[in-house]
Amino acid sequence: MRTKQRVLTGLFLSTALGVTGSLPAHAEADPELPVTERVSTTYDGAQLDWPSHDPEMGEGRVTSFTSDEPAGPNGADTKSGVFINAESLGEVSYGGDGPSYDGAPCSSGRMVGFVSESTTLDSRPHPDHRPRVYIRNRSVGKLTGLHSYQGVEFTSMGRPMVDPSCQWITFTATLAATDAVPAPQPRVYRFKFNGGTTDLVSAASDEPADNASISYNGRYVAYEQGGDIYVRDLDTGGLEKVSVARNGGSANGDSSAPSLSADGRRVAFDSQASNLAPGDRNRATNVFVRDLDSGTTTLVKGAHKKDYTAQAALSGDGTHVAFTSGRISHKGPAPAVYLRELATGTTQLISADRSGRRNDLAAGEPSVNADGTVVAFASASPDLVEGDSNGVSDIFLRTVR
User: What is the spatial distance between Cα 257 and Cα 259, in angstroms, rounded to a whole number?
Assistant: First the structure.
């Protein structure tokens, strides 16, 4: 599972992930493990000519992603769309007249949330192409649009995340300006599928809230606001700050992009702060994992003292964290994706080529399945699977155990 920082494009992979890093000596790929497979293909398994990005995992091999090219027989429209690889490849955002992106499945892939700028997706045509959040029930094909809160229309929506149990969705949205609130900020909301109720999750503040991650059954929601990470208990209304210094005080840098375990106990996130955990001396963004039960924060280091770690993605069971790592100096090998087992610290190279070595071109956007056995990521590297000659970012799955 992963909270997205979040629509990361193929351009991001070739530029923002163009910083570099080195392969940790303890992260050699096991040649006996299954080879990496590409899942962003056409329906008949051929490679795509346009980039794919933004993978999001459920359980097993369930993976949604965005493709900038139609991937199936319904693709007369040339806008980007959301697809899911479950038992087979399927399109989620079909029927629209605008781009769709930011897909997020529940564990089984039955319910998939996504963003679309289409005016024609649901039964009520819209007058403009503002981004709206939709939910596709794949078992019956039903589409539900989320457009307002307490009768007031949203002006913009994004970053949906569906809980593993397929009952709740969180998203970021901004309401229209009013005399009372002339400059509304983005807020995090939670919607219940069967009850149809929408709750405000983030605190009332002049600071925007964003990047929500939701627990099983929707009780806990992690989000970022004002440079800090919070977890809201929707049953009690309690709010806990996650990005706290070792002494319990304020962090000395901004934190973002939380990823919450299914039970709501652990939160992985990115932070520029250097006082959250011992040993943080690289003066760069790093991944941290906070155990809310024990009140402890763990630093996820790169292999070299000048490597950053970023794009934290926690497995549903909270036992593994995936991340991207590269060299702060922008020199050296391309950034790569790794998976760390939190209990032992054992780290595996995920974006391995066919020989088990580090990827040639940048890899990023990791997402982990429910039990930490499969990691999805995006890369334009041509050496990860046989026959990759399209020169654009693809979505790959790596089975680790």
Answer: 7
